[in-house]
Amino acid sequence: MRPILMKGHERPLTFLKYNRDGDLLFSCAKDHNPTVWFADNGERLGTYHGHNGAVWSCDISFDSSRLLTGSADTTVKLWDVKRGEQLYTFKFDSPARSVDFAVGEKLAVMTTDPFMDKTSAIHVKRIAEDIEDQDNESALVIRGPTGRINRAVWGPLNKTIVSCGEDAIIRVWDPVTGQEIMSTKDHENGHKKAITSLCISDDKSHFLTGALDKSAKLWDTRTLTLIKTYVTERPVNAVTMSPLLDHVVSPASGWDGIEKIRPEDGVDQLGTADQVVLGGGQDASSVTTTDHRAGKFEAKFYDKILQQEIGGVKGHFGPINALAFNPDGKSFASGGEDGYVRLHHFDPDYFNIKL
Amino acid sequence: MQNGGQTTNKLRWGELDEDEGEDLDFLLPPKQVIGPDENGIKKVIEYKFNDDGNKVKLTTKTRVRKVAKAHLSKKAIERRSWPKFGDAVQEDVGARLTMVSTEEIALERPQPPGTKQEENKSASDNPFGKGAVLMVCRTCGKRGDHWTSRCPYKDLAQPPESLVDKPPTDGPAAAAPATKGAYIPPSLRAGAERPSTDMRRRNEENSVRVTNLSEDTREADLHELFRPFGQITRVYVAIDQKTGLSRGFGFVNFANREDAERAINKLNGYGYDSLILRVEWATPRAS
C-alpha cells in the first residue's frame, strides 16, 4: 500500500480520531490547532483555532456536528465541526488531557493533569443541547488516582467510567456517585508501568490498554478480567483495534503502533482474523541515539485471539504517538513524533492474512 | 506651501513603489481550476508576480486518485462539499500538505526466528547449492547456470588448468587436513548452529584488498573480475565523495577462504585497465 502523508502539524501528533461514518479524520498535535482531514484522500478540510497550548485529545459527536478538544492551556473546547468555530470553553485549574462524549452526548468525561499542588481529576460535565444553556459546572469530580490520568472513557450504557494512567492501575468508576467500583490494583497480571493509551471496542464489551511495560492487554469491561496480553519489545504509546478483523494493535509507548483488524464482513464469520494494532517505540528523548532501521517506529499488528504478531508497518521517522482505525476497518491512520499523519488504505491481500 | 507639497509628492511616489506589487495583484487573472477530467487530471492555473515584477503563469497539474471506494452515507457526501475553514482556506497550490508516499509500504510479516540465518549458513557452506547439477562450467566452476562454451567469464579468466589447478603451496596443506580427520571445533562441524557473530568474523577473514585500481573502476567491475573464483558476499570500492571517482582501492569478500586464496594468487599482479593490480589479504581493522 502507498500511505498518504499529511503534513499539517508542525509539532508531534498526540491523538487521532475518526468520526462515526469514517469520512473525517481529526488530528491533535502539540501545535495548538486541531485539524480535520477527509479520510479517503487526505485532503485538509479545516483547522480549529483558539487553543493556546498542546492539544492532547478530542472526541466527535455521533452526528459529526460537534468536536470536543482537551488542551494543556487548561481548557476543553467545544467546536462546531463544520465552520470551525468555538461554541464553548470549559475552564479548569490544570491542563486537560482526555475527553470523551457519553453515548447520547448529554455528558462528557474530561480529565485534568496534576499541576502545582493540584492532583489529577476526572470531571463529568453536562453538555447542553442548546449551546446557550451550557455551563461550566461539573456534575461530578473524582480525585484519587496519583499521577496523570492518561485516558478516561465511558463504559457500556454510560453506567461506568474506565480510567487509566501513570499509576498503572485501571479503575472503573460509578459516574453518578463517583465511587470506585473495581480496579486492577491487586491484579497480579496487571500493567507494571504507566498506561499510555486505552481503546474501547465499538460495543464497549472489552478494551485494550497499552503501557510502558512493553505490553498491551485486553480486558473485559464488565468484570475487569484480563482476557489477553500482547507482548512487544518496546514501550507502547498507542493502541487500536480493528472493527472489522480480529486483529489487535498492541500499544507501543513512544514508538510502536499496534492495531486491530478484522476480516471483511462475511469473509470470516467466526472471526478467526481478529487483529490488534499497537504503536510505540522508545522515548522521544532517546530517538536521536537510535537508528530508525532498528524498526522501533513501526505499527505492529497482532492477532487478537492468538496473541501472535501478524506484521509491522513502517514509515515514521519517530515514535508513533497516535493510532486510529477507520470504523470500516479498511484503513488506519498513525501519527508520529515526526509531525506526520500517515493514512494507510489496506491492500486486498491484507484481508486474507492467515497465521 | 511649495516645500510641503513637494515632500508629500515624494512620499506618494515612495508609497506607490512599495504598494505596487500588492495593488497589481488585483490586475492578475483569477485562479483557474480545470478538471478533474475522466483521467483524474486536475489543472490549476495561477498568476503571480515574481521578484522582478514580471507576470508569471503557474500551471500545476495533479492527478486525483481515488484511493478507496467508500460507501459514504448521505451526510458524509454532504460533508464532502463543506467549505474549507481555518488554515485550509488559503492553501497555495505549492503547499503540498497531503502527499501520496512514493514508497510502497507493505505489512511486513514477522520472520520466524532462525530462517534467515539458516539460509545464509547453507549458502556460505555450499555456494553451489544443495542438489548436484549436471551442468558444470569448467571455466568458472558455476553449476547449473551455463555450459563451459557459453561462460560469460571465459574471456576474463585464464584456461581452467592455470586457474584452478595451481593452488598456492600452502593451500592444500591448509585445506586438505580439514577434510581428513583433523580436529574441527564443534561450532564449525557440519550441521552445527553457527551464531551470526561467528559468521561475520569468518567473512571478514575472507576479505581481500585490491589496490591500484583505475579511477573509473566500479563495484560491478570488481564483481565481474572476481566472480569466476567463487561466491562473493560483498564488493566494496572506495569512492571519493567529492569527485565521485574511485580512490584506487576496494575490498572483495568471498564466502570461502579457498576461493579468496585462489583469487589472490591469480589476480595479484594482473593487468587491469592498464594498471597492475595488487591483491592481498585485507588486514583486520584495528579494533
Q: Which features would summarize this protein structure in a list?
A:
heterodimer, A: 355 residues, mainly beta, Methylamine Dehydrogenase, Chain H, 6-stranded antiparallel β-sheet, 4-stranded antiparallel β-sheet, 0% helix, B: 287 residues, alpha+beta, 3-stranded antiparallel β-sheet, 10 strands, 29% helix, disordered N terminus
Describe what you observe in this structure.
Chain A is 0% helix and 46% strand. Chain A is mostly beta strands. Chain A folds into 2 domains: 1-147, YVTN repeat-like/Quinoprotein amine dehydrogenase (Methylamine Dehydrogenase, Chain H, 7 Propeller), CATH 2.130.10; 234-355, no CATH class. In chain A, the strands form 7 sheets. In chain A, strands 22, 23, 24, 25, 26 and 27 form a 6-stranded antiparallel sheet that branches. The two termini of chain A are 20 Å apart. In chain B, the strands form 3 sheets. Chain B has a 4-stranded antiparallel sheet with strand order 6-7-5-10. In chain B, strands 1-2-3 form a 3-stranded antiparallel sheet, with no helix packed on it. Chain B has a two-stranded antiparallel sheet with strand order 8-9. Chain B has 287 residues and is of the alpha+beta class. Mean pLDDT of chain B is 70; it is low at 1-10, 114-133, 159-178 and 195-200. Chain B is elongated and about 85 Å long. In chain B, a hairpin with a 6-residue loop joins strand 6 (232-239) and strand 7. The chains are: A mainly beta (355), B alpha+beta (287). The interface between A and B is large, with 50 and 36 residues. Strand 1 of chain A pairs antiparallel with strand 4 of chain B.
